[in-house]
Design brief:
Number of domains: 2
Protein name: VOC domain-containing protein
Pfam family, one: Glyoxalase
Strand content: 35-45%
Shape: globular
Low-confidence stretches: none
CATH superfamily of the largest domain: 2,3-Dihydroxybiphenyl 1,2-Dioxygenase, domain 1
CATH class of the largest domain: Alpha Beta
Number of strands: 16
Structural class: alpha+beta
Helix content: 10-25%
Largest sheet: 8 strands, mixed
Strand order of the largest sheet: 2-3-4-1-5-8-7-6
Order of helices and strands: EHEEEEHEEEEHEEEEHEEE
Number of helices: 4
Distance between the termini: 33 Å
CATH architecture of the largest domain: Roll
């Protein structure tokens, strides 16, 4: 499991509106997690829990932190990985702590400031979904501060390996990376017009055009797409109605 994306979490300003939006766009179902003293919604694709939804922490907007999706990456030991991350130039923003009966986590950023979480669950992990199954997250993309140093950082931390590299001309190289031999995402040096490094998550839908229509009807802003990518899939990128970046991927128009 070490180095595998295992959970995704949206921190937003309006939980009910975000729940209705993503249920419509991705087809997820939703239910309250029943966590004492905390309002947390679980989003599921069929029987598989995929993501969580929560209100942004108090003071986040004052610090100019926008609503955002956060990816959780499994590690063998959260404390050990957090220490290694810090030694490699990353920053631990929320020290390792336990979620009762769930697992242990830490909120961190890479050396250039892209945020993610380290996580180790209690007990046996649930059965995995097929990567490209409807409602799952099919792709993980890093707009890195610098591709070479970012790849070295993540490779040391998670054991990710290089897969194909695509020359994007003036935009630079798009490096696909793999976990246990399975390509799971790509990274590239962020374009100059992108102010900060960030992770972007692609949610699987059945057909991209219909999903774009649903997203725009629901108040999302289309940033890019529909665009065909190598392998024949179609993608689109958006800002949701509350301001969080997300993307969609589908096998057909």
């Amino acid at each position: 499991m070490h180095g595998k994306f295992v959970w995704y979490e949206l921190m937003t300003t309006d939980m009910k509106a975000a729940e209705a939006f993503y249920k419509d766009i991705v087809g997820w179902s939703a239910r309250d997690a029943g966590m004492p003293g905390m309002n947390y919604t679980l989003l599921s694709a069929g029987d598989h829990q995929v993501a969580g939804l929560m209100t942004m922490p108090e003071g986040a907007l004052d610090m100019q932190i926008p609503p955002a999706w956060l990816g959780y990456i499994a590690v063998d030991d959260v404390d050990e990985s957090a220490a290694k991350l810090a030694a490699e130039g990353g920053t631990v923003h929320r020290a390792p702590e336990d979620i009762p009966n769930i697992g242990r986590f830490a909120i961190v950023t890479d050396p250039h400031g892209a945020a993610f979480a380290l996580f180790r669950g209690d007990g046996e992990p649930p059965p995995a979904m097929e990567q490209m199954a409807a409602g799952n997250i099919g792709w993980h993309e890093l707009m890195a501060g610098d591709l070479d140093t970012a790849f070295s950082f993540y490779s040391k931390l998670f054991g990710w390996t290089k897969d194909q590299a695509m020359d994007m001309g003036e935009m630079g190289v798009y490096q696909i990376f793999a976990h246990n031999g399975q390509p799971i995402g790509g990274m590239m040096t962020r374009p100059r017009e992108v102010p900060n490094p960030f992770w972007l998550y692609y949610f699987n839908v059945e057909a991209i055009d219909a999903a774009i229509d649903r997203a725009q009807s629901g108040g999302a802003k289309l940033l890019m797409g529909p665009m065909e990518v190598p392998g024949g899939a179609w993608i689109a990128q958006f800002i949701d109605p509350q301001g969080a970046l997300f993307a969609l991927v589908a096998p057909k128009r």
